[in-house]
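thread from #wetlab-drylab

HS: before we spend reagent money on co-crystallization trials with fe (ii) ion, can we at least see a predicted complex? here's what I'd submit
DV: go for it
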Amino acid sequence: MLTLSEFDTFSKKYLLDWEQRSTVRTGKRSRLNKEVISKVEFSLHLKPFLQYPEIRAFTPEELHPYYLQALCDMLYGVAHFEVDFVTDQCGKLANKDLGIELSAAIKQVAIAIGTDEMYHAFAARELLADIEEFTGVIPTVLQQSTQEQPQQVLAESDPKVEPRLMPLEYFKTSVPPALERIAETTFLCILENAVVDDLFEMAKDFEVVNPVAVYNREHIQDEGRHKVFFQRLLKYIWGAISEEDRVVLGKAIAGYFKKYMSQSREELERAFSKSLQKLPLSESAIQSIAAQVANEMLAKPFYQKDFTKNPMHLMGFAGVTEHAPTRELFLNLGLLAESLELA
Ligand SMILES: [Fe+2]
Ligand SMILES: [Fe+2]
């Protein structure tokens, strides 16, 4: 439970800190040139495959085109996600009624975060322009002629995958209209936590000469601060809504993890094959590695997977996992383990 006054005090301190430390107010940003681009190393998406000899056999030179494409795709993702989702949601937090009271300082933090995110998109676009200028490489989605993606529904063209709403739509439609703003803000809190976990993951084991590490360090400087704010925002929301609303929101959160985080064998194998196809590997090697990695993933309990553990820390911090009906749902879905809870 976090009171409005405690959250307001936190937000006032946040604003002072933002003035002194945010990259948009104080920081210099890095640019890329031909020499720096030749040092790009970005193996995050190869992590599940690194134990296989076929992957280990590649030299850094052979992997460089893969790394560069992965970096382009990540920067494109940042440029879009920050503007289309985070900044949009931060604007709503400041200007639209959430259904529970927010102070002026809390709303001002939302605008400060939106400002950071616009700046992150600005920096990401600059780096994309550098890469295109020096190497000609552009994001994968811009290379495809049929880029039209369905906006509201995921995977509808695949007959084996049940059509799903985009997660934001899912959150908004899983609750009564009066809770819609709370539900989409909850999704914002979940994603702003996940982003930081990804950046920390990418910042690990990096050589200093690697420009991806430098970029991540610059980005994480702001995102670490965002994460702390959104943890508190969810805690405040959870304590401020009625018990009846907590039951409904808890169901929506549990449903989100079930729908969007648990994948079937077919979905996993397809996703792994798609990643591996970006490397110069034979079709039989791709199929065999994809099947083995899918097996490993399916053998691991849900609560041991990083993409579940990290959001569950957020749920613990915000008090969501202490709420008996929601905790029951999390336990039933395997998002939490009884033994871990007692530990
Ligand atoms: Fe950002
Ligand atoms: Fe952020």
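DV: Residues 86, 117, 192, 195, 223, 226 surround fe (ii) ion (ligand 2) (CB under 6 Å).
HS: ok that's useful, forwarding to the group
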